[in-house]
Amino acid sequence: MRTGLWPTAAALLTLVLLPTLPACSRFTKEGADEEVYGILDEDRRNVPEMVGRLDVDAADRVAEAARRCVPYRLTLDDALALAARTSRDYLREREEVYLAALSLTGARNRFNPLFGGGLDGALEGESGGVNDGVTASGGADANVSRAFETGGSLVLAIATDFLENLTTGNPFRLAQTLLRADLVLPLARGAGWVARENLIQTERNALYAMRDFARFQQEFTVDVTSSYYRILQRRNTWKNEETAYESLLRLLERQEALGATGAGRIPDFEVDQTRQDKLRADERRLLARIAYFSALDDFKLQLGIRIRVDLDLPDDDLERLYDRGPVRPPYGEPAAVGLALEERLDLDNARDQEVDAWRKVLVAENALGPDVNLELGGALRTADEHPFDLTQPQVEGLLGLDIDLPLERTAERNAFRAALIQAARARRQRQAREDGVVLQVRESYRRLDRAERSYEIQADGARLAERRVESTNLLLEAGKASTRDRLEAEDARVRARNASVLALVDHAIARLELELNVGTLQVGADALWVPAPPAPEADAAEDPPAGTQPDPPTSPPPEPPPVPDTN
After folding, report:
1. Mind spelling out the 3-state secondary structure of 511-549?
2. For residues 172 and 382, what is the distance between their CA atoms, to the nearest angstrom?
3. How far is CA 399 from the centre of its chain?
4. Residue 73: what are its φ and ψ, rounded to 5°?
5. CB 117 within 8 A of CB 15
6. How do strand 371-381 and strand 174-186 relate by DSSP bridges?
7. Which residues contact residue 23 at a Cβ distance below 8 angstroms, ignoring those fewer than 6 apart?
8. In this predicted model, what pLDDT tens digit does every residue of 341-364 receive, in sequence order?
């Protein structure tokens, strides 16, 4: 290559690479994260219900560390905080928000200046002809384009081509530079805001994803809390069945001892009745134990931790439920329905998606019109052998109007009709969602009322069952009651205890589900919820009278140590 070509090649290389240097950092993982988290930080003010960080990589690292250091004893607050860190569902939903924002960066980039460029070169040999020798040819080009949010685009480009015989050292046979600018502006179809439709929809999708995540956080908190209470309830049932079994065992030992004295106070058939009830109690305590540990294993999966991890859930939270008793919400059913129609995030999405559907109708209608494009262009072309001499360039210009009449719009017509149908569907879906929300709230209120009344009944039943056992024991000692009376009283007591705890837990979960369905459940950074205050007029009335509740549950007999995790 002749010496004179080196400045040309260097200039062209600089022209091609210089615009791309500032953008290099954008095309990395860190560049994507910076854009995405900037979008999320900007938009999350529109969803104040969403809490916590959205950094997916940090969340994954925290989850792995938390799974390796799971505490043995988990209070409800500990369980919620752990679940927010380790739950695989929680991590997946957080990633969905990131992916929605990532799609938005692509849609926004379409309206940013886009740079392009390249180099090409070749060596060709020829002998026995006029151009005998080795010929070098090459070229370089660079361009920048910009799409406008109101439609149309602008393209600026520069290109240079050269050709030289390297063997003879002849000067350029061809060397030319072209500077060109082209502007296209739509005047009918595709003009105005419809050019931004993809960007508008992607922005709204990111908002929907954030609302979905906030709604998931609320549902997740209720699910984990419900599972936690159910485990405590099942352990309490196991404890009650163990107590009933031990009581029958003592009764049987006493009857067998009396029978051995020969006094004949206890007939053999009554002793056999006690043996049969002891066997049934043994089976019930076995089933209760299995149900407890199965629920505990399911809870570990829900938390996202290893199944072999040994957990103990203290009874503190269940005892607090006993101390507090059933608490009424601070709103009645009509007010709850009104709040739900205002507060539910999924209902906000349904309403906005209906707006999206009607907007797409306008976009499809716009596509039925003619293509009318105003075209403006110009170019500067240098003379041969003087590629950078712009003193006397060849000047080219273009002013045109490109019109494409809408003589064939079958596809667009079909798209318009389909958009109308989709809009009607979105309207019906929004209406169905509103009706569904109202139904959820009303059903939740009914369940809460039923759970409250059930707890009152079961608490009274548990108190009566305790008195029945005491009186039956006294009558049995006096010979005025049979063994069957004593066995039935014991069976009624254990059932009443279990039913009382079940009703209490049912009420606590029903209260949470009501707040969830109303949309007033407030979730903290670690999925900890802030309970809504009780109804002012019901504060004093909701505290049950002293002595009307069964004794708070205690822990069941300890489970044998788990198999060590060797993985």
Report:
1. HHHHHHHHCCCEECCCCCEECCCCCHHHCCCCCCCCCCC
2. 14
3. 52
4. -100, 130
5. yes
6. antiparallel
7. 115
8. 999 999 999 999 999 999 999 999
